[in-house]
Specification:
It is built from 15 helices and two strands. It is an all-alpha fold. It has a single domain, classed as Farnesyl Diphosphate Synthase, CATH 1.10.600.10. A two-stranded antiparallel sheet has the order 1-2. Helix 7 packs antiparallel against helix 9, helix 10 packs antiparallel against helix 13 and helix 13 packs antiparallel against helix 14. It is globular, with a radius of gyration of 18 Å. The termini are far apart.
Length: 289
């Protein structure tokens, strides 16, 4: 089955269970709104791509891991857009969750999606206890402290921020989890995949920084210029646009090189290289040519 379709079906199934009888109508609507229609689904696609490259021996477990990772990503976006953080009125080209449903429901929506992510992993424990337990621990570590996405968001509350630590936690952590959990979900060795996820996570953050600083990316779906206006860390501001473009290209090359030997390694390397062209606008790519 097409990986994007697998992801969408797994997310629909997860949300159907959470929005059953007794769920307040506003929360039910807000949860669906936060997840659908989705963005590029990059993190769950990476999870399934790694699982496939390693043989995809347990599709149900890899689907659960991919869906959990995307639910956590969506939850982080809901919270990131809140007035106490970015105060963003839009996300994915339409009103953000708090703009559409109010701040109180937005907080609860993010919380409910986080819990749902671990609920769907918990359902797989009995069928695949070792793999699912390892996946759950990996994903949990990528969300909390000391270096998960919550810690990444918390760096914005500090007066001095280490750009590398900030990027590694806020964006890289969930990419690392996606790559590692993809291998774990099918019982493959996971150690080599950490570097792949780490490099890809930083590459996507640099691409996001470039989009925020230049406005050239059309798929951001959110206001631009927020980092500069709020004094947030931004690779394009810190390294310059050309420096950030070179950094992104180096990170992608490093991710491709880090893919370990496995049945689907050549195809995965090609997929990573192709994806890098999508996130880097042609105008910026020509600067570093």
């Amino acid at each position: 089955m097409d990986p994007v379709l697998r992801i969408e079906l797994a997310l629909e199934e997860a949300l159907d269970s959470a929005r059953g009888p007794g769920c307040p109508p506003g929360l039910r609507q807000a949860m669906h709104y936060a997840v659908f229609p989705g963005g590029a689904r990059v993190r769950p696609r990476l999870c399934l791509a790694v699982a496939w490259a390693c043989g995809d021996g347990d599709p149900a477990s890899s689907d659960a891991a991919a869906a959990a990772i995307e639910l956590l990503h969506c939850a982080s976006l809901v919270h990131d857009d809140l007035p106490c953080f970015d105060d963003s009125p839009t996300r994915r080209g339409r009103p953000s969750v708090h703009s559409a449903f109010g701040e109180r429901l937005a907080v609860l929506t993010g919380d409910a999606l986080i819990v749902l992510a671990f609920e769907i992993l918990g359902r797989r424990i009995s069928a695949s206890p070792r793999a699912t337990g390892e996946v759950m621990a990996t994903i949990a570590a990528s969300v909390g402290a000391p270096t998960g996405i919550c810690a990444g968001q918390a760096w914005e509350c500090e007066t001095e921020i280490d750009l590398a630590e900030y990027h590694r936690a806020k964006t890289g952590a969930l990419f690392i989890a996606a790559a590692v959990a993809g291998a774990q979900s099918v019982g493959a060795p996971c150690g080599p995949w950490r570097l792949v996820g780490e490099r890809l996570g930083e590459a996507y953050q640099v691409a996001d920084d470039l989009g925020d600083a230049t406005g050239l990316r059309q798929d951001l779906g959110k206001p631009i210029g927020l980092d500069g206006a709020k004094g947030r860390p931004n690779a394009a501001i810190q390294l310059g646009v050309l420096g950030a473009v070179h950094r992104l290209k180096d990170l992608v090359a490093s991710a491709v090189e880090a893919v370990p030997a496995c049945p689907g390694a050549p195809q995965l390397r090609a997929l990573i290289a192709a994806e890098s062209q999508r996130i880097l606008p042609a105008e910026l790519a020509r600067l570093a040519a």
